[in-house]
Amino acid sequence: MSDLTRMTAAELAAAVASGETSAVEVTQAHLDRIEAVDERVHAFLHVDTDGALSAAKAVDAARAAGEQLGSLTGVPLALKDVLTMEGIPTTCGSRVLDGWRPPYDATVTRRLRDAGVVILGKTNMDEFAMGSSTEHSAYGPSHNPWDLTRIPGGSGGGSAAAVAAYEAPLAIGTDTGGSIRQPAAVTGTVGVKPTYGGVSRYGLVALASSLDQAGPCARTVLDAALLHAVIAGHDPLDSTSLDAPVPPVVEAARQADVRGMRIGLVKELSGEGYQAGVEQRFREAVGLLEEMGVETVDVSCPHFPYALAAYYLVLPSEASSNLAKFDGMRYGLRSGDDGSRSVEEVMALTREAGFGAEVKRRIILGTYALSSGYYDAYYGQAQKVRTLIARDFAAAFEQVDVLLSPTAPTTAFLLGDKLDDPLAMYLNDIATIPANLAGNPGLSLPAGLAPEDGLPVGLQVMAPALADDRLYRLGAALEAALLDRWGHLLIEEAPAL
Amino acid sequence: MPSITRAEVEHLARLARIDLTDDELDHFAGQLDVIIGAVAKVAEVAAEDVPPMSHPEPLTNVFRADEVRPGLTPEQALSGAPAVEDQKFRVPRILGEEP
Amino acid sequence: MTADLLAYDDVVEAFDPVLGLEVHVELGTASKMFCGCSTTFGAPPNTQVCPTCLGLPGSLPALNAVAVESAMKIGLALNTQVADWCRFARKNYFYPDMPKNFQTSQYDEPICFDGWLDVDLETPEGVQRHRIAIERAHMEEDTGKSSHVGGATGRIHGADYSLVDYNRAGIPLIEIVTKPIEGTGRYAPEVARAYVTALRDILRGLGVSDVKMEQGSLRCDVNVSLRASRDGAYGTRSETKNVNSLRSVERAVRYEMQRQAAVLSSGGRVVQETRHWHEDTGLTTPGRSKEQAEDYRYFPEPDLVPIAPSREWVDKLRAELPEPPRLHRKRLQEAWGLSDLEMAAVVNAGALTPIEQTVAAGASVAGARKWWLGELARVANERGLAVDELPISVADVARVEALVGDGRINDKLARQVIEGVLAGQGSPDDVVAARGLEVVSDDAALGAAVDAAIAANEDIADKVRGGKVAAAGALVGAVMKETRGQADAAKVRELILAKLGQA
Ligand SMILES: [Mg+2]
Ligand SMILES: [Zn+2]
């Protein structure tokens, strides 16, 4: 058996199902890898060794009993620490949730368990998913496996880094403005934000409720599709969950057929602010697609340049309300309760002590945008921009099947580079945010290494709502073509840890 | 003139119940001023006749049947509480009034 | 801390009151507004909670269909419009009994708006009808409940700390808000009470709530302001919170009118504030000043999708509405042939529905009224319950009345039967059988008792023989005593008169 940690999820599931290996062996191999490298990568906030091994044992017992195994049964996975898992610490990268062990499973967690996926632990993230680098984690940043001095993206940098560092073949991320796709881009992995409402948000600790969406992180497009199929589908516990069939994502990834597809290149997602090497690799990938028979069209989405501004009003507004519950009364940190202080003082001291700078900044910004006298000018206007952006998407999808752009304007930057320059940090999500505002699905896959720094570049595919399968069709086809060209996955060029 | 003053930030922090330090107030006031200046860009495009979008999907009328379902035990409910007494959440004395 | 009060006659001489009433009603749904937790009153603390109503991180709301339907029924019964499309909003404020630190409520898009309710008020000048304009009826969720430890007598002020129970958090509430109520003059307190009473009756008739003010399932906030004249601008109002009985609604309005009038008459200024009602003393005391508007930062609730009731749905609910209580009452009064005064007695005793149902179960109107307004009203009063809360069914009462009508028991025995039923001894027939309460109808046994009574009271018997029929009462009494009340008094009297030649 080759190194189990180098195998794809699809291969691992097949190996477990055929008895070539056991779920326990697979799990132990990944726990060993975590043990070996995570001190340097810091992808995990919590490793649930016992839980993972006992879940793996249950899989092996089920197999021994002749039970039918699912498409990912026995495959290990890293769960972003923003999803609840009963009895397992869930911090959202924040001090304010120090020590909290939720009494319930998120729907995503439940579906993973039901599918026999082995959850290895919880991954690091920017505090409450606010950030693009994981540097805003209260527990210290994660490191990019390609270069440990660089960011792994964010907010789901831990999930992307775990996958890129072979600590897990699969991970769950959540994407509010790019937090699955941008980390995938800068770590040379695959990440998908499903259609809003495609995956239940029940148990996903909300950052911005109308933007958040959980999705798969993997090293191949097919693996991402397999995971997508396991976690997606209607959930009555989430009122915004779509009561529609899950798009045929696995079939699409297997078909990998782009013949006859029309592709739109978004004019507004290029040019100023985009690193030369990023643009170059993007153009090469488009050229490759053209060789494969897709038709490319230049499209304009004139309101995309307003997306960032709208996003930084909608998100902080919703977040300021979503994060109000963290007050030290019912769970998590309580600070300053000396028996004489009032509840008002203790709440304010708890929130001061429990939240980091970026969280405080955004709460204040959201409080401002919603306050009387400013609501119409800020929050109200931002919601109108959302409508305009949705109209841009709708108009574009009348001409083309999918839209393409670079995922992130730059490759991974150095840790510390943008830490105290919020606006510069926010610009990382310039290409990913429109899909969140309008609810569309988006996928990022590796497009090569930027010539100037040798770091991964991501290509983003966006599709109409509930046409997530198109992402996988195009993604898998391009991945296959690049594999032909390179002879291996891009991630295999990452330096050994 | 800055779009947001230190005094306003102080007021907002009170509304948001965060006991910011003086240093934070100074620091955030400057940063928020820059951010607000940037996000104010939304005013440039959103016209009168554009409907605001609160939800990125066209759903309406999602209801649940009026059925009792098992919830948490009191032990589970109180398991994360910083202080508990008589099966209730113990909180410091309350000064303010309910709205 | 007693405020100066102006004599009521002087108040209405110098000022015109304007009222506003906000009523919160807890719906009688099985489960909460946004989760499947039970709404049963009085459960041990924190036993009816889940991630959603505890506001745990990651939890989400799911809207109760029956709560939405109840809201629409209430609106339609109050003659409101039902919105084609509306949303929930978040009302953001920090308070420990609110697990999320925002209340999921409705703001500028209430499900029901623009309605009215007619209220009839009996006055010395005749019946006055007031049309109370309804501004809106919207859905929201209740908060948890805090109790306060240390300090004086469990009050919030001066307490050392508080304890929170979230069983009540998330119970569906409908908030019903009136437009300013003008033109009530000196009857403002009575109109306020009559409105809340009428509203309570409507809610009860709809079956959407148990409307128990003493358990807090109907709660009233009373806004009062005074102005110099009927066409003048509104004065500054006070908002008295949690006035939780009908009588208190009336008292609180009167008190606030007298208090504000005293302030204004002495050249002072009414402060815009919330005030607390003290049931024991009948006073209001100042609470939070509302001079500075709270900033609740409302915005559309992203976790719940909009509600767009179809016209068919609304029409169906409208068609199913019960007859409005005021008209229903009028119809019953005519059918029963009662005077206004007699009908008022029935209504005030809370016995309208029980009597109606007892009659429907076969009793005569007179019989049903006799028990519900007599013995049962007395026991209910003794126990501090409403008559319909007594552990006796309308069928039981109808059966008691039937037993009396058949001559199997008399009124005195009937009271014992009722007592037995209330004591949980089974049905009226069970009690009659178990206690041997049937009247003595055996003529032979009764004849012997009559003979014995005559023999023992020859002087009285002589008077009766001599034509003083009224004197027979003493003999009847003696027989009743002998038979321990189990004889039919009319029959005994008949027998005595026959034996003494006066039949
Ligand atoms: Mg309210
Ligand atoms: Zn609940």
Attribute tags:
heterotrimer, A: about 500 residues, alpha/beta, eleven-stranded mixed sheet, 11 strands, about 40% helix, about 10% strand, B: about 100 residues, mainly alpha, two-stranded antiparallel sheet, 2 strands, about 35% helix, binds magnesium ion, binds zinc ion
Question: What does this protein look like?
Answer:
The complex is a heterotrimer of chains A (497), B (99) and C (503). Chain A is 40% helix and 12% strand. With 497 residues, chain A is an alpha/beta fold. In chain A, strands 1-3-2-4-6-5-10-11-9-7-8 form an eleven-stranded mixed β-sheet, sandwiched between helices. In chain A, helix 10 crosses helix 13 (376-399). The longest helix of chain A has 24 residues, at 376-399. Chain B is mainly alpha-helical. Chain B has a two-stranded antiparallel sheet with strand order 1-2. In chain B, helix 1 crosses helix 2. Chain C is of the alpha+beta class and 503 residues long. Chain C is 38% helix and 19% strand. Chain C has helices at residues 8-14, 65-77, 188-206, 246-265, 311-319, 325-336, 340-348, 352-360, 365-373, 375-383, 394-405, 411-422, 428-435, 443-456, 458-465, 472-482, 489-499; strands at 16-26, 81-82, 89-92, 102-105, 112-123, 126-141, 145-149, 161-165, 172-178, 218-227, 238-243, 273-278, 283-289, 299-300. In chain C, strand 5 (112-123) and strand 6 form a beta hairpin. The relative contact order of chain C is 0.10. Classes of the chains: A alpha/beta (497), B mainly alpha (99), C alpha+beta (503). Chains in contact: A-B, A-C, B-C. Bound molecules: magnesium ion and zinc ion. Magnesium ion binds next to loops of chain C. Zinc ion binds next to loops of chain C.
Task: Please write out the topology.
The complex is a heterotrimer of chains A (497), B (99) and C (503).
Chain A: H1 9-18, H2 23-41, E1 44-47, H3 49-64, E2 76-80, H4 107-114, E3 118-123, H5 157-164, E4 170-174, H6 181-187, E5 190-193, E6 214-218, H7 221-231, H8 249-255, E7 262-266, H9 276-291, E8 295-299, H10 307-322, H11 343-354, H12 357-370, H13 376-399, E9 402-406, H14 422-426, H15 433-438, E10 442-449, E11 456-462, H16 468-486
Parallel strand pairs in A: 2-3, 2-4, 7-8, 7-9
Antiparallel strand pairs in A: 1-3, 4-6, 5-6, 5-10, 9-11, 10-11
Helix pairs in contact in A: 2-3, 7-8, 8-16, 10-12, 10-13
Chain B: H1 6-15, H2 22-39, H3 74-78, E1 84-85, E2 88-92
Antiparallel strand pairs in B: 1-2
Chain C: H1 8-14, E1 16-26, H2 65-77, E2 81-82, E3 89-92, E4 102-105, E5 112-123, E6 126-141, E7 145-149, E8 161-165, E9 172-178, H3 188-206, E10 218-227, E11 238-243, H4 246-265, E12 273-278, E13 283-289, E14 299-300, H5 311-319, H6 325-336, H7 340-348, H8 352-360, H9 365-373, H10 375-383, H11 394-405, H12 411-422, H13 428-435, H14 443-456, H15 458-465, H16 472-482, H17 489-499
Parallel strand pairs in C: 11-12
Antiparallel strand pairs in C: 1-9, 1-10, 2-5, 3-4, 3-14, 5-6, 6-9, 7-8, 10-11, 12-13
Helix pairs in contact in C: 3-4, 8-9, 8-11, 9-10, 11-12, 12-13, 14-16, 14-17, 16-17
The complex binds magnesium ion (MG) and zinc ion.
